[in-house]
Amino acid sequence: MKLTVLMTLAMLAASTTAVAQQHARTVHARSTTDSSRVERQKAANLKAFRGIAAKLNTTPAALQDAFASARVANPKLSRGNFIAANVLADNLRARHPNITTPAILSGLQNGQSMGRTLQSLGLSAAEAKQERRAAERDRKDADKRVKDADKLH
């Protein structure tokens, strides 16, 4: 009886060790895959900021870092709204000094739409719509310039 119990315990220990080793290999493989996926995503995001970074006289890395920081404060913030906030602030700074990127991001964080945020910062509804459209054109133009430059190289 003691021999049977000891053999059962030994088999159970060996089985548990094998399962634990397999689990460790699976977790390591998954974390390696996840980290490489995360690195590829970061590289793609960095590349996606190239065009607009040039328009805003900054670097793609600086924009990516600022976006990451803004996402900490507002996890629902989209890349598109982040870029729009930066372009709008850049376009409107001379005429409306109170319209800044942090002010726009704050409005978005409080649940306001981009249009409502711009209106709360002093633009009329028509001006907000016009400026949002201009910012979208600027973004598309910047992305097109980068794509065209990439084709030449």
Explain what this protein looks like in three dimensions.
The chain contains seven helices and no strands. The chain is 82% helix and 0% strand.
Number of DSSP-assigned strands: 0
- The number of distinct helices, counting runs of at least 4 residues, comes to 7
Q: Bin the strand percentage.
A: under 5%
**Shape summary:** flat
Average pLDDT, to the nearest integer? 84
Unreliably modeled segments: none
Largest sheet: none
Percent of residues in helical segments?
Answer: over 70%
Order of helices and strands: HHHHHHH
What's the alpha carbon Rg, rounded to whole Å? Answer: 26 Å
Structural class: mainly alpha
Distance between the termini: 78 Å
Q: What is the count of structural domains?
A: 2
Summarize it.
This protein is mainly alpha-helical and 153 residues long. It has helices at 2-48, 50-55, 60-73, 79-92, 101-109, 114-120, 125-152.
Task: Spell out the key features of this protein.
82% helix, single chain, 153 residues, 7 helices, mainly alpha, 2 domains, flat
Helices and strands in order:
Elements: H1 2-48, H2 50-55, H3 60-73, H4 79-92, H5 101-109, H6 114-120, H7 125-152
